[in-house]
Amino acid sequence: MTRLSLPKRVDGHDRPQAVIAPSILSSDFARLADECKRMVDLGADWLHVDVMDGHFVPNLTLGPPIVASLRKHTDAFLDCHLMTTNPELWVKDFAKAGADMVTFHLEAAAGPEPDDWHSLRPDAAHPAVVDMCHGVRAAGLHVGLALRPATPVELAVPYIEQGLVDMVLVMTVEPGFGGQSFMADKAAKAAVLRKKFPDLLIQVDGGLAPSTIDRAAAAGANVIVAGSAIFGAPDPGAVIRQLRESVTAAAISGKAPH
Ligand code: DX5
Ligand code: ZN
């Protein structure tokens, strides 16, 4: 059984309710429990946990032992974004550590070699990706499917249509580092999914801030990850509110494409 439930779409909205997920990558890791509590107190819905293996991306961050430590200090929804090759190796460890959702990269699930993702097709589900989705659910976790900026969004469709994923993460920077510039044309990929799937959770991650949120909101995103824009702000609570207001306004006015 999954520990915490996912947001739903309410009447009059064109997407599920807004979720604001500060990325702890931008927090002070030496004070992680306090930083997480601060974000939840300021209105964060989820905490976004960036897991990097130094292989899928050129950076190293954290893994299941830190999630397990953090779980002792917070009841918050832990949204774990795995930027790793062989993501299937880590699912059980994250479940045991107390994660709520595992989002893995479609490109990595297709196989361990950098070119393996070229075998993905928009009209047929890849067996390894299907197995990965089943594995995450079987571990009692919600399932997220992440796409690098260069990956065509249509490649996610077979898994959504088969009901295998709860959320698609559209990366709006090249994964690996916080503080990069938002790629508006990549956020536009969300619109393709929103048009087909009004109830799907669509997450955007990378460069989200009060100055860029309207582009992502207009494309239909409802789960907003922000690291530097929240942790680096003098008033992080005000940024969380601004991000939520932009998404909710777009959801009500139906700014997303129909
Ligand atoms: C990048 C990570 C992001 C990162 C976002 O690889 O997946 O979650 O923390 O940081 P900002 O919001 O600073 O771009
Ligand atoms: Zn992330």
Automatic annotation (TrEMBL):
Where is substrate annotated to bind? S23, H81, G176, F177, G178, G179, G207, G227, S228
Is the rRNA-binding keyword given for this protein? Answer: no
Which residues catalyse the reaction?
D50, D205
Q: What cofactor(s) does the depicted protein rely on?
A: Mn(2+); a divalent metal cation; Zn(2+); Fe(2+)
Residue positions annotated to bind a divalent metal cation are: H48, D50, H81, D205
- Note the InterPro entries from the entry: Aldolase_TIM, Ribul_P_3_epim, Ribul_P_3_epim-like, RibuloseP-bd_barrel
Show the Pfam families listed in the entry: Ribul_P_3_epim
Q: What is this protein called?
A: Ribulose-phosphate 3-epimerase
Q: Which organism is it from?
A: Volvox reticuliferus
> Species lineage, top-down?
Eukaryota, Viridiplantae, Chlorophyta, core chlorophytes, Chlorophyceae
